[in-house]
Amino acid sequence: MGDGRVAVVTGGSRGMGREICRDLAARGFRVVVASRKAPACEELAKELAAEFGVEALGIGCHVGHWADCDALMDRVLDTWGRIDVLVNNAGMSPLYPSLGEVGEELFDKVIGVNLKGPFRLAVRAGEAMAAGAGGQIVNVSSVAAVAPAPGELPYATAKAGLNAMTLGLARAFGPTVRVNGVMPGMFRTDISKAWGQDMFDRAAATPAGRVGEAEEIVGAVRYLTGPESSYTTGSILKVDGGAVWSPA
């Protein structure tokens, strides 16, 4: 059980983040649900408290904004004085007509949400964990980091940076803070609603033969935030139905 430990999940109000929040609450953690839309976070926090009997907070946070990241960390530490688990799950991969039509605003937004914000949150959380009883940070990356496609190149670039950051932070905050990553493949989330049939055809061609469901990411995060992974840090765990091969 969580024994009063505090877990923060960004992008926590829906999709994979929602399932991760539910699992942490079921394990007894105090859960902070964070995403851009505060009402959705607050609603899920109430559900978690009612269903699992844990304390939960819903906090609006645009992780692409440095000040929002600091405000989130300050709120958690002011409320409970500790942070034991951070799951950097928030991400975005907007569509664009061609690489030449990727504008600076889109590029900066993608880097901000997928890399800049997770860096700031992980550093703030890692410092607090290292000064306390330690903890675990899990960065949710993507197989795009190792198998980038032209239609998601800014996103893939950001996620490749997130993988590098994961290894560097594991060295920076060890031994009491473990930092790992999860690298999902094609999952059925809100993002997948914009997919064309070609994406589902690609998923059907994988060894698993299908897209992943949001709840299927939970086991990987549970392992990386639990005692069974006590000797696992600086690792990237691929959860993609066998879609790509990577030495990571």
* Tally of strands: 9
Shape: globular
Give average pLDDT, whole number. 92
Gyration radius (Cα, Å) is 17 Å
Architecture per CATH nomenclature, i.e. the level-2 architecture: 3-Layer(aba) Sandwich
What is the string of helix and strand elements? EHEHEHEHEHEEHEHE
The CATH superfamily appears as NAD(P)-binding Rossmann-like Domain
Q: How much helix is in the residues?
A: 40-55%
- The oligomeric state is single chain
Helical run tally: 7
Give the N-to-C terminal Cα separation. Answer: 30 Å
What is the percentage of strand-forming residues?
Answer: 15-25%
Main sheet? 7 strands, parallel
Category by helix and strand content: alpha/beta
Any idea of the CATH class?
A: Alpha Beta
Numbering strands along the chain, what is their spatial order in the largest sheet? 3-2-1-4-5-6-9
Named CATH topology: Rossmann fold
Compute the number of structural domains. Answer: 1
| Low-pLDDT residue spans | none
InterPro entries: NAD(P)-bd_dom_sf (IPR036291), Sc_DH/Rdtase_CS (IPR020904), SDR_fam (IPR002347)
Keywords: Oxidoreductase
Family: Belongs to the short-chain dehydrogenases/reductases (SDR) family.
Protein name: Glucose 1-dehydrogenase
